[in-house]
Amino acid sequence: MNVAVKPKDISRNRPQDIKFAYWVPNVSGGLVISKIEQRTSWDLAYNVKLAQIAEKSGFDYALSQIRFTAGYGAEYQHESVAISHALIASTERLNVIAAILPGPWHPAVVAKQIATISQLHGGRVSVNIVSGWFRGEFQAIGLEWLDHDERYRRSEEFIRSLRGIWTEDNFNFQGDFYRFKNYSLKPKPVHPLPEIFQGGSSRAARDMASRVSDWYFTNGNTVEGIKAQVDDIRAKAAENGHSVKIGVNAFAIARETEAEARKVLDEIIAKADPEAVNAFGHEVKNAGKASPEGEGNWAKSTFEDLVQYNDGFKTNLIGTPQQIAERIVALKKVGVDLVLLGFLHFQEEVEYFGKKVIPLVRELEAREARAHAKVEA
Ligand SMILES: Cc1cc2nc3c(=O)[nH]c(=O)nc-3n(C[C@H](O)[C@H](O)[C@H](O)COP(=O)(O)O)c2cc1C
To answer: Is the CB of 77 within 6 Å of ligand 1?
Structure first.
């Protein structure tokens, strides 16, 4: 049944505090395509310690990455479900989001893997359904590379299948990509059910989010750029009787002074690997061009933007803790529910962010709430 809900009713239901996630560095080479020193590692010991630091520092989620082959850096890659499980097993509160790529994975396999992890640890596992940008990866493992909007049609069927398997017994589904007949998964995941995130910014991505996803994850952008996406998705979701939360990527450089932070950004760009950045840009822009409207996550990305894989500099969380906190609250005001963060030196900077930035965000949020309550009274 489609129940029309006005966007403002949806926003009133959002939890009070903006959430924080970090990118799990489970692929080698860090999150910027630059020869600048990055004190990070893709190995298990580093990642376990990072996850423990993150949950103590006020992070709610960790997002793993999926890559089946190297390209533009990322020479070595740990698989996302396996490493997510290891991180859940080594923490107490953190929710770890496993990246899933329809194509290599079948929804029955993912539903089973995630249900098992949820059962073993009492929840704390989510999925990020990504639709893919890397044609060479599909070719390398002998899988068909679908056109842009076909990839989203498949992802939507994937999400509908996952949700059906997790919530119904004798599940039936007749799609173009997946079929299920009287299928009953036992055991199912514990409640609350694993959340379903998705990554992508194109027309097809936004339409899918407004129909089936719990969360829409998008590349870094300006507050205005994010607002346009939020308004579009929430209006469409309301028409569909669906509610969707919004997560935005950012590469954080928090330092005691703005000048110090800017200097780090300048050094990242100055030491960028032009060949790799241009090749990456070519690949992702082509993947987006294949969408009918010729858009996508990286449609307007410049060379500098592309040095960070997901346009994380554009969100401009670069400066002092106070400046960053204010910008995060500005994002919240236009409807953002979660900020996904990448760092140069993960363990050190996640800890610093938790000590210096998150408390300021909470203060500003409380101040906003008090001001709002006064206006209402
Ligand atoms: C937060 C986020 C995380 C992503 N993680 C992955 C990933 O782990 N593996 C992958 O192949 N693509 C990943 N992607 C890229 C998506 O697969 C997709 O190609 C991209 O967002 C472009 O989609 P669009 O053309 O709809 O804008 C991610 C995207 C976002 C926004």
So the answer is: no
